Here is the input.
Amino acid sequence: MLRNTLATALKSTKAMRARAASSKQTRAFTQATLPDLPYGYGELEDAISGQIMEIHHSKHHNTYVTNFNAAMEQYQEAEAKNDVAKMIQLQGAIKFNGGGHVNHSIFWTNLAPPSQGGGAPPTGELLNMIEAKWGSLENFQTTFSATTAAVQGSGWGWLGYNQGSKSLEIVTCANQDPCSTTGTVPLLGVDVWEHAYYLDYKNVRPDYLKAIWKVVNWGNVTERFNAAK
Ligand SMILES: [Fe+2]
Here is the structure.
């Protein structure tokens, strides 16, 4: 009787170990990849030159992807060794490069050539909420541009949706901190790192932030709003 009980317990332990091993094997990190742009580099020239778009996407964003994958690979190795100090050490690189990948991936889809709807104003519930909070779309754009122009150093301006208060908010982030760190869901992001505008606008960041509205893809912003609310 005791022998049978012990045999059953042993079998059960072996099964648990096998399941745990199998579970570890299925946790492999899926590498991030550089997404294709949904338009050509030269198609946003009403606001951003093809030269900036090409460098920004193929060099800057690509570097964030490469460095994020490298940091995650090291993180996995550290995790496998239970090296907590190393795991903590890597968090800065993961936040910076992972944030850069996440932010740019949203930014590209937030933009569109005028021939594909870029610059066409929002309608419906999103427009109603913008007008209720800022008085008009124009006033929202002016406020967003002024708030984002005031980011010190490198960073981003965002229109975010606060799911707790069910409201829209203009927020800013330093460096590559993602919008989610502000407690809001990202709807529209504008990159104000110098690499995003300097070749076209030199030091005049406000001119870039005035022109960007010509290529904002409000259709994409609305899709994000509908998914977030
Ligand atoms: Fe950027």
Observations:
- The beta strands are 155-162, 167-174, 185-191.
